[in-house]
Write a structure and sequence with these properties.
This protein is mainly α. The protein has helices spanning about 10, 50-70, 70-80, 90-95, 100-110, 130-145; strands at about 85, 115-120, 125-130. The longest helix has 20 residues, at about 50-70.
Length: about 160
């Protein structure tokens, strides 16, 4: 991941304007600024600026990750996996969907790097790669939803569904 566009000029000047409170606010770095100088100019004859291309690539990666989370069933699976490692059969029982449906969702979460799969004998065990990070993302989503008018907010998310 990289920085939000507003921070490109701050990174180029060698400084940033961090907020005194904890965590990034709108317009601040999501994780870290790119190393080296950042230029806003693009020489059309030479092609796009490599830094701009890297920013665009990282936005695509972030969008892909968010698409992996953009499904209520996958969020329910993550809620169960936040309790610890589970086998597919256990998740099928918790979610109440067909094994094939649960497996498709687990494959999507695994391919995006959100969960891991451990094989022991004939059994596969799934776990969240970084449970704290996933729970932070979901908490941020809940915070954003809390600021929306009631009609615009989708059904509320819970941290752990049974």
């Amino acid at each position: 991941m990289t920085i939000i566009n507003d921070e490109v000029s701050a990174a180029a000047s060698g400084g940033s304007n961090p907020s005194p409170d904890t965590g990034p606010s709108a317009g601040q770095a999501l994780t870290s600024a790119p190393t080296g100088p950042v230029s806003r100019t693009t020489d059309t004859a030479a092609g796009p600026n490599p830094t701009t291309r890297n920013l665009d690539d990282s936005y695509g990666a972030v969008a892909g990750l968010l698409r992996s989370l953009a499904d209520p069933t996958r969020l329910r699976l993550l809620a169960h996996l936040s309790l610890g490692e589970h086998q597919v059969g256990e998740l099928v029982d918790h979610i109440g969907l067909a094994q094939s449906t649960v497996s498709v969702h687990l494959t999507r979460l695994k391919s995006s790097g959100i969960i891991t799969k451990r094989i022991e004998g004939r059994s596969s065990y799934y776990a969240i790669r970084d449970p704290e990070a996933v729970m932070r993302i979901l908490a941020i989503a809940r915070t954003l939803l809390a600021h929306q008018p009631a009609a615009a907010a989708a059904e509320p998310m819970t941290s752990q569904e049974s």
